[in-house]
Please model this.
Amino acid sequence: MPHEIFGTRIIAAPMAGGTSTPAFVTAVHDAGGLGFLAAGYKSVDTMQAEIRSARASGARFGINVFVPDPAQLPPSAEVLARLEDYRGRLQADARRYGVEVPPLRLDDDDHWQGKIDALLADPVELVSFAFGLPGSDVVRALQRSGSAVLATVTSVAEALEAAGQGVDALVVQHESAGGHSAAFQARPAVHPEPRDGTGRRDGTGRQGHPERKDEGQPGTTADLLAQVRSSVGLPLLAAGGVMDRAGLEEVLAAGAQAAQLGTAFLRTPESGARQLHKDALASPHFTQTRLTRAFTGRPARALVNEFVRDHPDAPEAYPAVHHLTAPLRAAAAAAGDAERLNLWAGTGWQRARAGSVAEIMAGLLG
Model:
């Protein structure tokens, strides 16, 4: 039975960068799910315009906000040196397209305070946070304004910290999820084998790449959920690797009230993802996903392409690396070059279908 805070078993993940449009969120709502707009990388005005558009459609929706990392604003001298080195190594990519690698930008907090102020002045039903916690004062202020607050966590320790701030629910993200990891507590790292399209280890034993599995994180989303469920008494969303009804039932049985899916919806016509990205998900040319910092400076799971392989040691410096690679990614997209584009994908990407949102939802809900 879905918890009243969600009202459905299927949540469409907030996918920043243009994928989670108001039209996409509306399609998810119309099909019986709940979509989240993505405030990340947007101005306050653009965020507000998308909220107005989603409201005008009559859709129920939430919005996701990135929490800035004060340790990166500005980065340390050591990280700054690594950024300068990485900027130099990106020059070869820039020459490929005849573009410039921009100067370092070290002050971007993604319009944090402006977005919080806007959401307090014009509340949205559900506000979720990723990359960190907003602070108890922000949580209470949003709740007083009428919003329910969700925090994205990747471990029991993060879940306990989020619960301590008084949030209403947790998005429990496993490392199998596509796109950025929401982890915000430092943990030791190990380097597992690459993932094939089934989400299993591919058995090659290859090492020396930046894919990272946080030490202590269980092997499946259901396993992680069970750990969090035994430690925190909040409603839980499961995020990572859910691609079909069997996967949905597994995480529900493990204690989730609903599942948050991203990769499963990427190839739908309603998704705002680039066609180049959609086509890559269906291409036999791409055979692995990997956690990489190459595109943004924050670990994110993507299809392994030339850019990922060429930059295995990008610095951990978000969003500074994001700004360095933005012109390169835009040029690659314009050139139709999937080898230099950030192709976010979870470990189950090969099961992503090209049908409509309604068709994907029907398959999930049975």
Q: What stands out?
A: The chain has 13 helices and 13 strands.
